[in-house]
Amino acid sequence: MKILIACEYSGIVRDAFIKRGHNAISCDILPTESPGPHYQGDVRDILWDNWDMIIAHPPCTRLTLAGVRWLHERNLWSELDEACDFFRLFLDHPCEKIAIENPLPHRYAVERIGRKYDQRVQPWQFGHGETKGICWWLKGLPHLIPTDVVEGREARVHKCPPGPDRAKIRSRFFEGVAEAMANQWG
Q: Range of 37's domain?
């Protein structure tokens, strides 16, 4: 399959699909951290290139419960609208197989996106001893089935200290979840 992994700089999801023989490419405005097929630039440049599957990780800064208070305090409603429009590029795309990943959204995002997520999973269900709710909006794909439930759950991502790499650290995807995606959706 020809697969676009949108808004991914780490190459984790891309590489999981490549290992299973798929033609996968990651795309992000950042360079990839892992050598492999990667388009550095705006995903809209390649979004319409006849993909068999699109997996998207759109920026969540304005969409999640964690930042909802700033919408009012800093008047960030126009940024929320832009984020939802970008999210909908993937949700409304005609590709038959789409998975969009984001943390738990707040009600304003759900209203603008047009619907709630289809599934919510945790990294500890896929071999990672930590918590971070992963929500999936799915089209033409089944729910992910947990592969390796582990104990010792920690909120490492939420405890990440401030710093220049905080956003990158918090957005890095989990290899166990990527492996499950490639095995179950590929």
A: 2-185
- CA separation, residue 16 to residues 3, 76, 84, 179 (Å): 11, 36, 28, 6
Whether 37 contacts 49, CB under 8 Å: no
Nearest alpha carbon to residue 103 among 139, 129, 144, 131: 131
The kind and range of the H/E element at 166 are: helix 166-171
Residue 150 · residue 177 · CB < 8 Å = no
Structural domain count, the chain = 1
| pLDDT score, position 165 | 62
For residue 124, the domain's CATH number is 3.40.50.150
Which of 3-12, 68-77, 154-163 has the highest mean predicted lDDT (pLDDT)? 3-12
Q: Is the pLDDT of residue 155 over 60?
A: yes
pTM: predicted TM-score of the whole model, two decimal places: 0.91
